[in-house]
Model the fold of this input.
Amino acid sequence: MKKSAIVLITALLLSPAGYIFAQQTHEEKVICELAAKNCLNRIEIIQKKVKKLNDQIKKGSKTYSAEELKKLEQKLQETKDLLDKLEDAGK
Done:
């Protein structure tokens, strides 16, 4: 009788713990998925920025001074570095 009571009490105490653990795991999964999606969105935005900077640089000295082109190239390199870091973090 005592063993049955102990088993019953243990089962009753552990069932909420299992539910809480399962809920926590689900929440962690959702957070992870949102973070991954956010990261992919940021990568796409940065890739578009790289393309725009390349397009501006291609216009060359007809549109920009040498100093402005240098700034654009520097910004392009910074953006590429950021993109590389994000892509490496996703691996």
